[in-house]
Amino acid sequence: MTKGRPVVAVVDDDPRLLESLEDLLESAGYAARSFSSARSLLVSGLSGLDVLITDIGMPGMDGFELCDLVKKVRPDLPVFLITGRHEIADADRAQGVSGCFRKPFDAKVMLAAIGNVLGKSKNGDEHEG
Fold it and tell me: 103: pLDDT confidence band, cut at 50, 70 and 90?
């Protein structure tokens, strides 16, 4: 059964990045939901999300903390981290996520990574490879 367009949530405290990522995702056929903080995402809830993209460096709850919390509640939810601070992208804490992108990131590479994780989950977890 088809449930419609996959939903990608983006959490970042930069409104320009939220707007540009929302435009990119929607032009690629995804339903984008933007949040200016981890708290606003959590208040909205995680149900119905297919992918989460979160900035690492945010005030309040940072992207690592959000990722840790999300993995407890929805361990199956693919999470991508984005950061403008290059040394953080290589940190050990970035391990175990679906991917980590440095700003400015290549839009085609990000869309391919999202498509890849959605293809794996949408085409059945039993896929042999």
Answer: confident
